[in-house]
Design a protein that fits this description.
The protein is mainly α and about 140 residues long. The chain folds into two domains: about 30 residues, no CATH class; about 100 residues, Winged helix-like DNA-binding domain superfamily/Winged helix DNA-binding domain (Arc Repressor Mutant, subunit A, Orthogonal Bundle). Strands 1-2 form a two-stranded antiparallel sheet.
Length: about 140
């Protein structure tokens, strides 16, 4: 059984903080631990969450993919989408439920997703952060 990252990092005498020294030394434990604590949604996570909100009760994998493709003009790899959905669900930002089996799908059921209250709060937080970054920015002045 492996020790928890923070315990392992202490045992190895390494700082758990993300510093230039840790990066130079290749302290991946510190990097992974920092990545797990990020506060804002990543770009694709944000797109997935917004697609779920737009689709409401009809939000299942294929429709989420189509919504992102339709609105963003970006192809979506099915594996990336489901990995993102699972990650968001593990962070309790979304929840899922299995629907009824359908003959069109060979008797398989669709898995429907919806944004949780925590997820909606995270979307709003990310929206505020992005709007703050855009506020007063003049792109024509950038060269």
């Amino acid at each position: 059984m492996q020790a928890a990252p923070s315990t392992l990092a202490k045992r190895l005498g390494r700082s758990r903080r993300l510093t230039k020294e840790n990066l130079a030394r290749g302290d991946f434990l510190a990097i992974v631990e920092q990545m797990a604590k990020r506060e804002y949604l990543g770009e694709f996570e944000f797109m997935v969450m917004l697609a779920l909100l737009r689709l409401g009760h009809e939000a299942y994998g294929v429709e989420v993919s189509r919504e992102i493709e339709r609105r963003c003009g970006r192809g979506v790899a099915v594996g990336s989408l489901y990995a993102t959905l699972e990650r968001l669900e593990s962070h309790e930002l979304i929840s899922s439920a299995v629907g009824e089996a359908t003959p069109e799908r060979g008797g398989r059921a669709k898995r429907y997703f919806q944004v949780t209250a925590n997820g909606l709060a995270k979307v709003r937080e990310s929206q505020r952060a992005l709007c703050s970054m855009w506020d007063g920015l003049r792109l024509e002045a950038v060269r």
